Amino acid sequence: MPQVHFTRLDHAIDEVHDLFDRWAESGTLDGSLDEDGASVLRLAVHEWIANLVQHAAFPAGARITLDVEPGKSVVRCAIEDSSVGFDFAGQVEQQHAILDAPAPSERGRGLLMLITCTEALAFRPAASGARQRISFCVRAGTGAALFEPLFRPEDLADDFSLLGPDLSDAAPTLASTPAGDGDTHGTAVAYPDAP
Amino acid sequence: MTFTFQKASQTAVVVRIGKALDFRNAAEFKAACQEHARQGIRYYVLDFSSTGILDSTGLGVIFSLYRQLTPAGGQVVFASVSRPVQVVVQLTRTYKVFRQFPTVEAALEAGAAPSGPAQIGAGEPRPGDARPQQPTGTL
């Protein structure tokens, strides 16, 4: 499939959903994902681009490139952008910290949502000569169970706060991956519960 | 990118979420809900029948409303949940917190019945429920 470029930040999210609407109408992803899987893919792309729209700096102009490759029961997706980049691992850590706050903000969970939606997530930070890039897969039947700590009803039951249990069993772990291995010389997210 | 509030009683309102509840309109949604809470609304029926996008920020403001209402015995329930929203509900397991109903009418009927404060885990059916919608996702 051809790459799709977004250059107008204010319209990027609308354009993303227009694109997914067209794919749904034309059945572009039908051989790879069912309707729910396509919704998961749409959500993952939405969360990442929403993150860029809200938080990224594009001093040299915005250019976001979406590359989607449908396969058999899986869709591979890569998104590159011309922003100055940001500390992905640090942001994920910060989002986990939000969960432990006594009165957590309703914002700042987008990366956790993205992690929940996807498999084989890899991040390459922006560096000289390389654009920030994230890549991931969405597989048919995807249903990660990592997201539960994001909102924890059992804690609300205790005291109407979101203070709570140790998340170490459920939270994905972050690990730096070796440089020089394609696009993996950034941060990879490992899934403790992944098969 | 709009939602509408339709008062169903002195304490209940139906919020028809439009095409999306996400980072673009979450603040507007929150402000409108808080204004209704100040007017005494304690039972919010969120109608997702037309909703294609519910993102992490949209879900976050719903939880914020839930946290605000629950100590005072209020409730937030979901009605006519579209498939894309059901996917989010399943992924996040928020069906454990928010009761779901197949229709707005069923949600209002349940809200009219004396039920006391919102119960955590109310996604599970209980005797006397007005046919709460079961999570149907296959994720």
Keywords:
heterodimer; A: 195 residues; alpha+beta; seven-stranded antiparallel sheet; 5 helices; globular; B: 139 residues; alpha/beta; five-stranded mixed sheet; two-stranded parallel ribbon; 7 strands; disordered C terminus
The chain-level structural class of chain B is: alpha/beta
Mind telling me the C-alpha Rg of chain A? 17 Å
Q: Biggest sheet of chain A, open or closed, and with what strands and sense?
A: 7 strands, antiparallel
User: How is the main sheet of chain B built?
Assistant: 5 strands, mixed
Largest interface: A-B, 37 and 35 residues
Order of SSEs of chain B: EEEHEEHEHEH
Distance between the termini of chain A: 29 Å
Report the mean per-residue pLDDT of chain A as an integer.
75
Structural class of chain A: alpha+beta
Strand order, main sheet of chain B: write it out: 1-2-4-6-7
Helix coverage percent of residues of chain B?
Answer: 25-40%
Number of strands of chain B: 7
Shape of chain A: globular
Strand order of the largest sheet of chain A: 1-2-3-5-4-7-6
Assembly type of the chains comes to heterodimer
Helix and strand pattern of chain A = EHHEEHHEEHEE
